[in-house]
Records
---
Amino acid sequence: MTIFASMKRLVLLSFCALTLATCAADSRPNILLCIADDASWHHFGANGNKVCRTPNFDRVAREGVNFTRAFCSSPSCTPSRGALLTGQDFWRLEDGANLWSRWPNKFAVYPDLLAKAGYHVGLKGKGWGPGDFKFGGREHNPAGPVCKDFAAFLKSVPPGKPFCFWFGSQDPHRPYDRGAGLKSGHRIEDVTVPEFLPDTTAVRSDILDYYFEVERFDGDVGAMLKLLEDAGQLDNTLVVVTSDNGFPFPRGKATCYDAGTRLPLAVRWPGRVKAGRVVDDFISLTDLAPTFLEAAGLKPLPEMTGRSLVPLLTSGKSGQVDPMRDRAFFGRERHANVRADNLGYPIRAIRTADFLYLRNFELDRWPAGDPPLYGDVDEHLSIAGSPSKQAVVEHGDKPGVKRLFELAFGKRPAEELYDLSEDPWQVTNLAADPRYSEKKARLRAELDLYLTRTKDPRATDQGAEFDRFYYVSSGVSTKPVETNP
């Protein structure tokens, strides 16, 4: 073979290698995450709600997989989003375990990893936060560089390059436009009021206003799906629709009951995922980061406690697919600055199909924040900021509301146990009932084992460190909280 022929063959082989690499890159799916701000599982049509209109979430669920048992790592915006981004339980994230915290830049996030692998990455709306992500040296939010909107982002994607986009809605976060739900055509009489809220016209209207914003989020999801369709990209896009934590009502957001932790989760991925399936495996938002990495052909990081959903998505099965996914673990630390010395309210919990077990660590503290504001509920300094909160606080001494007041704002025992088959709204604590002592002990042991294995500071009596992390106001770090070690 002549030198010229050898060179020609080498160029041809190099071209083929480059072409194959380009094809491989092209075959990787785009990734679109749509995350609501404070929306609970049971307020979406595909999950059985007959009043709240969510046709686009329902479409993703219908054309993909609807996960019925998805939970956040923590029922608070900042730690929940941090856990999603890192694929790690929130208690492993140091400062990031609290709301309004500083982002600890030592932890890798999936958008950065995908960007290094050739993905075009962008963010619209609420990413990680609220908090200070610049403290550790970051130039943009861990969820991605900010874009004007999804349409502009799509135009900016280089030809043949896969993209990863985070759409962080601010719906249905409070405050609400009062009466918006009624004006949108909903009827007061159609609302189902949870057992932990008073059934009044004001509360029903408040829930309808919340529905209005859930529907607005769903409309935004629909607009993004349409843009993908028009661009011919929908069928090569892994679409995930979920929320960061539960609805902002008493005994909802910032609590470890289902109303605060159980989330909607639908995934659509044509070509890889059989449509029309309902999967009952327990899922954590920490599972999304390793899922996105595996979908892109990357290996999840060893430190990730979440597990990729790709085996479930591609299994073609419904119901309980993986028998090992039979429980979820979650908890919380400091939410808002609503207690003396800026202290939090630490909880850890385990949820199975039949039971919810909670461990409360600081029994002398007020779970919902110091009275009379109880600021962890709805994050409003004014009681009147939330009609549902107002209905409980201002009528808490009345016979029909007193128990609801204690459920939402009263101090709690060290342990809580709820039998979900008898008590789906989790309002009757059975931890002191001797009939459940064996079940309680077993769940306590399983929780302790998991916390130890995942190196939760609470498992080694080092949990006070969470109260000493910075609290950030308006994106600027303030001095550390002064507390006794």
---
Amino acid sequence: MVAFRNTDASGRTTGLLLRCVLYSLLALALIIIDKRYDQLGRIRRVLSIVAYPVQIAVASPFEGWDWFRESVTTRDALRADKSKLEAELRLAQFRLQRYEALEAETARLRGLRDSTVGITDRFIIGNVMDVDLDAFRERVLVDKGAQDGVFVGQAVLDGGGVVGQVASVGQLTSEVILLSDATHAIPVQINRNGLRTIAVGTGDMSRLKLPYLPTSADVVAGDLLVTSGLGGGFPAGYPVGTVAEVKRDPAQSLAEVDVKPAATLDRSRELMFVWMKPQPAATAASTTPTATPPAPAAAPKPKKTPTPPAARTNAE
């Protein structure tokens, strides 16, 4: 209690404890009055208005620093998120391109499979390994050879139509001459009227020609050319191309007919080697046994007529 004692000029001792108790009771009374009657609310509101600028002035430096740090952190986070999203976008685009390529490849393979139904005996699919860069040769190298059963002259197709035929065969690879090669020719017929002719290459992958049609031939632009099957090199009924242009010169005996190939000669990556089914006539001829003609019946021997006795006597 010594700390709460004090001595004034008169010598009387005043206690700080008494004043502390009085102030505490006063504060408690004010709290009760404010709680019950809300008498100090107006004063508190006025004081809050007066103190608000002070609060702003005191809190502004700290709030400014927090805002700056958050802004810098947010910008860095946004940059990191942007880089991450860009990487994910590039990966997604790469995968999408791969999926599109796989989808296109599946469509091509399905087209190759569907185009052989009922016509070929069997087929295999090869991939183009190399393209001949010679301007006068339209040939490609494929990863199928003699070990796969490929032979010279074999028909080669893609999902659109006839591509060409095998020109030479190695053990593991083979060289395919395209329809557009200037030295290649294929027997065809016009699907509309059955007119047969020969399509030859021009050295241009986008154009064939029909050089042996007279000017009076029934051929018009848009006619579909299919293989005729003559010669046994190509199965009949496969698309070769579409007539693009027909020029008739009265002074010439032959028409100039340009054909757009049905196959994508400059873009095909998968080629199909086909084995044709045996022709029905040849099959029937080979399977039907030759009938042996029956042996001619022996002529009956004439019966000997007995001679009467009187005749024998006269003869004697």
---
Amino acid sequence: MSTITLFTRALQRGLIAGLAAATVLSGCATGPRYSPPAAPDVTSYTGPATTGSATAGATTVRPATTAASTGEVAGNTALSSSEQVTVSDGAQSVIMGSAPRRDWWRLLNSPQLDEVVTLALRNNVSLEAARATLAAAEQRAKAARGARNVQVDVAGDIGRRKYGSDFLGPLASTFPTFSAYSAGPAVSYDLDIFGATRHRIDQADALTAYNREQLRAARLQVIRDTVTQALRIASLRAQIEVVDRVLDADGKTLELVQAARRLGVVSDIDVLTATSQRDGDRALLPPLYQELDTARDALAILVGQAPAKWAAPDFALDQFNVPRELNLVVPSELVRARPDIRAAEAELRAASAAVGVATADMYPHITLSSGWAESGLLSGGTTSGWSLIGGITAPIFHGGALSAQRRAAQDAYQAVFAQYQLVVLSSFGQVADTLHALDHDAQALQTHETELASAQRTVELTQQGYRVGNAGILQVVTAEREQQLAEIGLVQARTQRVADTAGLFLASGDGA
């Protein structure tokens, strides 16, 4: 029977024996078995309306029909009321128990925004970095899983040797100097009886899951920033249009005052007052244009282009329409919907695996190894040899290092668990804040619309009074100033309502 055959059979017997021992001792595997944290035991994002808050009902919250039929959303009627505030953009309702659509930004009905978001998701540099980071984590997890397989290597050596009398007795010193070599495969297998390899694999898989959620979070961030900058451009352009109209009105007022001065009806003070009003309003434009240029540059970077090579669209605020119905997952589902919560949960799993690794390091480490080699003299024939070895390394005394490492891993797990709880609580707070904001936005929008209508009427009456001598120029300037502030306030209120609508989608973890 050949040497290779004997080696193969011996290796098979050794591996079978080792695997049998591993099966018998599998109950010795140490360390915790990870289980995900339970879903939070809450049924609503917000509490009862408090005194001093905006009138309840500007935004209603009601359960979705499909979710309500399961009984999951009973009591999820935060901010609900039979009344609704009527505003130009219409009332909104939040549908509990139904997940938002993935491409929620399309509900804003801006084709320009759709194109830019698609471009950003395709070309954004931070997303490319997150994808590469995830790919690296996947390969590290693959490498970790490889440790549980049989390891095969090839080894060889060559050298010139001379034996002394301490080798094979006194006559060995008479052996001539010779050149020899050996070469052959070496096989090893870690029985992993106490689970160190298993925990390392679980840790690598958890870190892969963490990086996968980081990619989802990065995608959400790109969507958030793209929508924010597009909305900022639209809002600034609308404010610039308001100031342009104000400057046009200032010019007409100045012409009116100058004509009255030529007739001797008013004094130079009136002319100076009207001129000062116009010049002061002109000073409003440079800061607005600076913010507009900054927003355009930021949007270019988001789509992966240099500002000199790509021009942002001229977004218009009236092209952004808020949807009437907003879908929102129930609280118990939020932990599975938001990437930041899922990433924190993956970190918790990795911390649990680290406890398992530290625990397994306190126990013996058993391996099987075998080798076969062809060896001989360079000037002569060759011979074959094989070996089958079982090895064990058991810690005896490490100065308390191993137990300290285990306690450190346990403490680190508790810290990560606390951080996970904080992320969950913060996420619930973000959703609650956004629900409140939507309720207040409708109230603010109605208030600004009423304010603007009153300011416009005041300007008309004041200008008519000035023409017939019943009002002074200061009254006209004051009325126009109030109208300008009301128009800008309305633009900002409309912008905020769109931003908070997008914020609810983002707070739900949608779009990733």
---
Amino acid sequence: METNLLEKTELRINRVELRQANLTDVAAKVASVLNLPRSEVLVVDVRNDHICLDILARTIDIRQVIGKEKALLAELRTVDGVVLQDNSYVDSSGILGVIGCKENEAAEIISRTAAVGSSIERGVLRRAIVFATGFEIEQEMIKDTNSPHLLAMLTRQGYAAQFGGVVSDDVNVMAQKLREAAEQWFGLVITTGGVGAEDKDYSIEALTRLDTNATTPWIVKFQKGVGRHVKEGVRIGVGQLGWTTFVSLPGPHDEVMASGPAIAKHCNTGPIDKVALAKDIAEILREKLRGKSGSWHH
């Protein structure tokens, strides 16, 4: 039963003393007890009386954590240089806090968590936010026709949809905006613009910072370095982080409109298959671009 950690990923070992301890060994023991890959557990802070670890996974099966406090402390006692007290304990401010539950309470808590988690997930999946990108919109050189169109379409599909504003042509700013949208429990995040081959186009790069396995099919390819093209071509993208799906669309309004049916099809049936959605949008836009003459431009 996968549960989204909702960015509450810190786990604290309290009332512990370290004496020339190897933090790699500490993280390895925690990963082993929680049945996580070693790469997903990192010691991030050490104080006089506690250690703080970060679980890099965004979702976790609650059964990996619940009631594991005793087992975790027992394993840490085997690490050279780690000194625990009789009253040492493990805690977290988020979902990971179930690690301290008693074993005989685990079944009931798992049942309740599943019910609550399903309810939250359903609510999150029906919340959408739309961002426009580009200096030409930011400086009001052109009118943003994409956002109103997408908001109206999403509303018709039953989403609680809102406009997130205009995002600058900056990969760091864009990535942060997308992450914040996920942290604010939006199940669908759509951006328009910034997917081209110019040096001001960063939507796909921002997307892949959040989901390194995002699906980013090419729509059209250019000869890199010719004219304004500093990249190989134009891509759209669909990525995911926890319960949130990100969709990076082109800027031209006719292409956003053409993508609408694919979005409506995939985003109205529960959890989204990012590969299938990206494939459908890409095929629509490739066909549309075949009918255009000259170079694709933003």
